[in-house]
Amino acid sequence: MKTATFQKSFPWKTEGKEYPSFELAPQFGRVPEYSWDLSDMQRQRVQRLLREEIVVSLHDHPHEYPADMSDLIPYVRSAHTRTGYEGLRASGMTAVFDNLLDGYGCVCSSAGWKWEELIMDLGMRLCDFSKQDYVTVARNTSDIRAAHEQGGLAIVLSLEASTAIENEVDRIDMLYGFGVRQMGLVYSESNNLGSGLRERGDGGLSRFGERCVKRMNDLGMVIDISHSSDRTCLDAIRLSTDPLLITHAGARGVWPTRRMKPDEVLTACAERGGVLGIEAAPHTTVSRAHPKHSLESVMDHFTYCVDLMGIEHVSFGPDTLYGDHVGLHHAFDLGVHEDMATWPDFEPVDYVAGLENPTENFFNIIAWLVTHDYSDAEIRMVIGGNTMRVLDQVWG
Fold first, then answer.
1. Does 112 score more than 70 pLDDT?
2. Which one is the CATH code of 54-395: 3.20.20.140, 3.40.630.10, 3.40.50.720, 3.40.190.170?
3. What is the reported pTM?
């Protein structure tokens, strides 16, 4: 087996001279380590599963963020977003759906998301990846399996929303050509494709959105409906000839917010062969049983969705990063906190204990599954097997 190496982002450039220097949050030790009372046998089993199985995060932003979130907007505008290679190397993940920074274009100009900003970010990230022998940009499932065999990491280029394509369906072809293999239809606010989950009205998928769904099916690009409105989700599931992904969400039956999906959407997704990735960004997958957001809250959504959808349709899309995620929500005003006053009693947190960053996520997820008596076969399914089944079908 090849032992892959890693280094910092943009190793061919001089930081502070050829691109701006920022103090970045640490990849390790930013918050206390999650505490486990594992027996030696349980710990060995967790480590074995993390080492031997294909482990896929359906949704993360595995970037380093500024230590001081007041630097966030100039950092994003610099077009030199650093990837947390050292932390990712220690995570045990085989593949991560890396969602770039397409959702943050709204802070770079008054016009919101722009095609030029997306291409700039995508091009810079691809250039950086090309200089890392640890990283493979996955264009098919063979790339993911090869990364597993070689001890590397497969990056699946992903976008949270299709907003930047505007009304040009051929831009989907261009993104596919650049290596993008998964794309969300809408990011909370409506766009030309359909309604987002933050809107007061729900118009569902537009005629243009229908064309885009068909084009993504024809190309073999996975469709994500995480931030779409309920009707847009159902329209896309009905129309798509391929299974869809809900890469990062939870169950509204556990926590009644618009960011969570209702049972109707979850069951429709499962019936068409799709997979849900359980979300863990701060103040999303809270539960009444665990109103202080933590690994336990997230796993309340997991067990509910397993019972509802079947274990073969559930996975994990933690939606984490290296830095202060709560601070990021406030800095970008992404709407996560906008309706907290209407929620059931809960306790705000500074971070989600046990699922704070991409390095710790899957050790803790597997540890929870081990301590709750899930079999190796069941764990294999939810940490990567279910996702690989969908990718094999959609990517071909």
1. no
2. 3.20.20.140
3. 0.95
